[in-house]
Amino acid sequence: MKMGSFRISLLSLLLLLCYYAPIGEAKYLKYKDPNQPLNARLRDLMQRMTLEEKIGQMVQIDLTVATPEILKKYFIGSLLSGGGVVPAPRASAETWVNTMNGLQNGSLSTRLGIPMIYGIDAVHGHNNVYNATIFPHNVGLGATRDPLLVRRIGEATALEVRATGIPYVFAPCIAVCRDPRWGRCYESYSEDHKVVQAMTEIIPGLQGDIPAGFPKGVPFVDYGTKVAACAKHFVGDGGTQKGINENNTIIDYHGLLSIHMPAYYDSVIKGVSTIMVSYSSWNGKKMHANYDLVTKFLKNYLKFRGFVISDWQGIDRITNPPHANYSYSVQAGVHAGIDMVMVPYNYTEFIDDLTYQVKNNIIPMSRIDDAVRRILRVKFTMGLFEHPLADLSLAHLVGCKMHRELAREAVRKSLVLLKNGQSTDKPLLPLPKKTSKSILVLDPTPITWVTNVVVGRSLGKDRVETTSQVELRSLMP
């Protein structure tokens, strides 16, 4: 071969390589390769994203305002069912799955095809879904003193949630209720933080067991029958002054760490994926704006690597009245370390405000990158990129007999004998049959109606059809 011909051939080869290189690059995207290390996938995807795409990942909007077109246009990272919102009255598992997949297709049609993550309250079973199994609230489960039972309830709940195409639950609530006047004491496993810590065993029930040697603080979700969990509400929501909801928890640093924080230690160690911030304050400082606790303590000290999510319109409530200075609220909340913001309706206002603040160096780009990296880490870890769409393979498990039997077991174990007489030799119970008809139940309040739900099925929007009820009316003397 002549040298001139060789040069021409080599030049032709180089031109062909240059021509086909973009095609090969378009076909292979490192972040879509499950065989690549997690951090490599994260770096590859992050460097491809625009500011608009990154901010979109930080937004969670409600189902009632979501469409595939909106998810595609604004690169929305997450959706939720707020306040018992359902796709249709008495929606079946098939309806839920079809709704989830239709919305997910909007996210997958974006330039980078980043899947959205859908979250729902499943705080005592899949309680928003028609015919789902309902379990006792946390106050009842705490009374069982049975962490393994709670773990099994987590497993059953995860199966029913996955059966409806949803991969993320806003549970468990690990508040330590210190004042019975708090109207949400039923959400707390106990006033004893040790009991609450033990009940965080629901997290591996929901998410699966972390593998041996898995890094501390990194979220873990075993794909298929498990869901991402959310420990809430960080931190001290059960210790507010006089038990007033969303109020101020007045306690010193040692008290906060020894009473209200221990369950979060356990949750992080067990690989919890997300943590939700509380509406309440600590010594006058709103938790949604508390940089020292959210970033310095939770993220830096406890090494939590999942993402931090706000509560419903949580950043709005940084000011009083809410939304009075929204730009300040956005700045304070994102700066504090909130990664995903539950908007849930006025998402364009949040997107525009946050975009303006980043472009004008009010919020540093490094804070946005940290938030998005955490969100994507959870999505990668739970296999959402490989399996973004749901199917009906688990639909038969919604309200199945096995789960109903587990609910009955939980009710039996949650029953508590408050008093059995002053003497162990002469117990008060059981009562003689001849005297039981002459007993009058009194209460210091004018009217009290107590319903003990033994076991039942969800009818949606927190309505329950029960198989057995005990009703007590009290009378004033």
TrEMBL record:
<dbReference type="InterPro" id="IPR036881">
    <property type="entry name" value="Glyco_hydro_3_C_sf"/>
</dbReference>
<keyword id="KW-0326">Glycosidase</keyword>
<dbReference type="Pfam" id="PF00933">
    <property type="entry name" value="Glyco_hydro_3"/>
</dbReference>
<keyword id="KW-0378">Hydrolase</keyword>
<dbReference type="GO" id="GO:0009251">
    <property type="term" value="P:glucan catabolic process"/>
</dbReference>
<dbReference type="InterPro" id="IPR036962">
    <property type="entry name" value="Glyco_hydro_3_N_sf"/>
</dbReference>
<comment type="similarity">
    <text>Belongs to the glycosyl hydrolase 3 family.</text>
</comment>
<feature type="signal peptide">
    <location>
        <begin position="1"/>
        <end position="26"/>
    </location>
</feature>
<dbReference type="GO" id="GO:0008422">
    <property type="term" value="F:beta-glucosidase activity"/>
</dbReference>
<feature type="domain" description="Glycoside hydrolase family 3 N-terminal">
    <location>
        <begin position="50"/>
        <end position="378"/>
    </location>
</feature>
<keyword id="KW-0732">Signal</keyword>
<dbReference type="InterPro" id="IPR017853">
    <property type="entry name" value="GH"/>
</dbReference>
<protein>
    <recommendedName>
        <fullName>beta-glucosidase</fullName>
        <ecNumber>3.2.1.21</ecNumber>
    </recommendedName>
</protein>
<dbReference type="InterPro" id="IPR001764">
    <property type="entry name" value="Glyco_hydro_3_N"/>
</dbReference>
<dbReference type="InterPro" id="IPR051915">
    <property type="entry name" value="Cellulose_Degrad_GH3"/>
</dbReference>
